[in-house]
Amino acid sequence: MNIELGNQTLRLIPGGGVLLEDSTLIVADLHLGKATAFQAKGLAIPEGDSEADLDRLSALVKWHQATKLIVNGDLFHSPAGLTDEIQRLLETFLNKLQIPVQLILGNHEAKLPFIPHGLNPVAATEQAGLHIVHDPKDAPANVSSITAHWHPVVRIADGKRTTLRLPCFLRRGEILVLPAFGSFTGGQVLDVEPGDTYFVSPGEEVVQVPSELVRG
Prior knowledge:
Layout: E1 2-5, E2 8-13, E3 17-19, E4 24-27, H1 34-40, H2 49-63, E5 68-72, H3 84-97, E6 101-104, E7 124-127, E8 130-133, E9 145-147, E10 152-157, E11 163-167, E12 169-172, E13 175-177, E14 188-189, E15 197-200, E16 207-208, E17 214-215
Parallel strand pairs: 4-5, 5-6, 8-9, 9-13, 10-14
Antiparallel strand pairs: 1-2, 2-3, 3-4, 7-8, 10-11, 10-17, 12-13, 12-15, 15-16
C-alpha cells in the first residue's frame, strides 16, 4: 500500500518495513538478542528469533531490490544480548546484503558498550527529503518524519464486545511511526488522537483500518 508523506510516495510493506522512492528500505525495533537477554535472567526462552528476523529482513531487501537499508533504532536489545553469536549473525547478514546499511541510534543502543562494525550509527538522518529519527518525540515540528520506538498496536473492533489487536503503522500528522520488525517484541495500544490513521498487514497486503473500527 502506498501513502504520501511530505513530497514522497512511501510503500508500506507487510511485516513492518517502508520503501522510499529512492529504493531505501527502512525498518525498526528488531531487538536482536532479546531471547538471550531473558535467558541470562533465568527465563527459558528458545533461541532462533534473531536469526529468523535477519533472514526475513534479507529477503525483503532482495525482493524489493532495496539500494540502502536504514534500521531506525533498537536493532539490539541489551548488552547481555550482544553475544558473539549475535555479532556473527549480524556480520553474515551484512556481508550478504552488499548494500549500504545505517543504524539510527535508539534508546536500547544507548546501553551498549559498543556498536558492531558496519552499521554507520547516527542519531538521526535525512533521506529523500524525510527526517529519520527513532523516537517520535525527537521529530522536528512540522517536518515529515519516519519514526519508531512505540511498537504501535491498533485495537480493532470485530464484534460488539470483542477486539483484535494487530501491530500497525501509525500516521499522525507529518509523522509515520513504524511497527516493531522483530518477532520477539511487545507492542502497545496508543491513545487515539484526532486524525490518526492506522495501517495493518494481517496477510500479504497492507490495508488501512476504517476509523470507525479503531478502539483506544
